[in-house]
Amino acid sequence: MSTFTPPRFYNSRKRTNFMAMAACYGATLFGLTWLVLILMTLVVNGLPGISLALFTEMTPPPNAQGGGLANAIVGSLMLTVMGVGIGAPIGLLAGTYMAEYGRHSQLTSVIRFINDILLSAPSIIIGLFVYGAVVVPMGKFSGYAGALALAVIVIPVVVRTTEDMLLLVPNPLREAASALGLPRSLVIRRVAYRAARAGLMTGLLLAIARVSGETAPLLFTVLNNQFWNVDMATSVANLPVTINNFINNPDPNWKQLAWAGALLITFTVLSLNIIARVVGSARNEK
Amino acid sequence: MSSQHSVKVVSPEQSAKARMAILRRLKFSDVIFENLAKAAAYTVLLLLGGIIISLIIGAWPAIEAYGLNFLTTTRWAPSLKPQPILGALGPIYGTLVSSLIAMIIAVPVGLGIAIFLTELCPHWLRRPISIAVELLAGIPSIIYGMWGFFVLGPYLAVHVEPQLIAFFADVPVLNAVFSGPASNLSLFNASLVLAIMILPFITSIARDVFTTVPPVLKEAAYGAGCTTWEVVWNIVIPYTRVGVIGGVMLALGRALGETMAVTFVIGNAFKIQSSIFAPSTTISAAIASEFAESGGLHQSALILLGLLLFVLTFIVLAAARLMLKQLETKQGK
After folding, report:
1. Is A183:A115 a contact under the CB 8 Å cutoff?
2. Residue B53 contacts by C-beta under 8 Å, 6 or more apart in sequence?
3. Residues of A in contact with B46 (CB under 8 A)
4. Do A183 and B27 touch (CB under 8 A)?
5. Structural domain containing residue B36
6. What is the CATH number of domain A67-285?
7. pTM (predicted TM-score)
């Protein structure tokens, strides 16, 4: 009786496997390294600029000392709130139509297809669209134009999550409500929305996160403003464009403010992303 | 019983009337809600139509002035008198090549991470690592630009590019692609930044489609003595091929249209150069850096560039969606 000796090619298969798996570990390390590097750069460069003045003082003129980003922060908040305020209801209603009224209609599959394309469409194209559709007819750059551009970005994000989340709501819930005599719209608003609440919240947070860092569509819709201005009919200061202008300038004070602003934006956006995931997973575990 | 019920005595006719009124009101709000929802759904379609029409109107003067020559001209001289000479070949080349290089880097890495997450990673680490990779997608584009400009670019110009140039110096063809001088602003830097940015899109879609492989198939292969790599290569990837390609196309769509990050690091040069270490430009970078100061035919030409970009991404994204849909049908979703 001879003992079993493994054929020679076992070794080469093992070697291939080892190398491929090592490459996968390497790829993961590679991907995570960038995240760490970028966040580190932001903290190292941005942290020295974080102070109370950042939130209370206006953007300084070139070659001055001090100053803050108060007008840009407030402007960004206004643009985001207005953009989400316009985009989210439209997205919610459209998603509702797709999941509740027209679940199996041809229109829904066309809209879903178009919406998925809008979801990944380059944001600069949306800036061009709003420039042609709003800025040119109005004859000037304005906060409204910027908010509309952001709304166009918000709509597909909210449509997508609304439809997905409403489709997850079990049908017996709707049937029970209908059997009690509730009209369709109330079944949707009182039963389906409530059941999908956590998911709808996630979509909203992701939409806010998506637009708060957007720069390209604001470049030629709101432009920017050095001064305190809450009149949305004219150019409004905003963080992304302020960062873009300040970072490309040799003035060290501006550069410091730009890094601080970048740190602020990134951590806001990343926190929103994480909160959205926590809200979303809380639902899944129930 | 509460007092409000006992005090008021209503006749049957009155209560029937009140009920009718309530039902009418409900019916009314029902119709309003349904129509609002329908109108919102049509808004999505109108948006796409609006984008295309607005771009065509804006681009019309440039289409009339340059016609098809726009696609074959390299020269970009917006301030030339009496009429500027504007050609899209430079930005189109930059867009395609930077996205291509980004895909060459990001696809293997993204798939590698997805394989790690689905096959190798201990269960408790899966969620943190997936979230960390997906956070890369959350970082705003302008931050990638700043980081690429101040950190990555200078590092590459000193520690990576000269070495690559020296390494390929004697290899025909490749020595033209990797030729000096190394610079902070180049097509290669833009591609690397793009690769990092699209990595999370590839990873998250690949991970999602990898988990759709029926465990029975994998278990059978493992049972037959396959190594992890053989299971991935012979079972998982063939089974999910369409979905993976869909995810890759989706990432390509992102890379083609990425704006701020590329604007910072590509150098904004309207030229076609063989070396990937030379500055270049992309469609979106050209629009971002010139649009605000442009007017007349120059502006129209930039909008025409935008239209070309939209058509290009539309085709890529549509193909991606169709492929992902095909995979869904296969699963019977």
Report:
1. no
2. none
3. none
4. yes
5. 12-66
6. 1.10.3720.10
7. 0.89
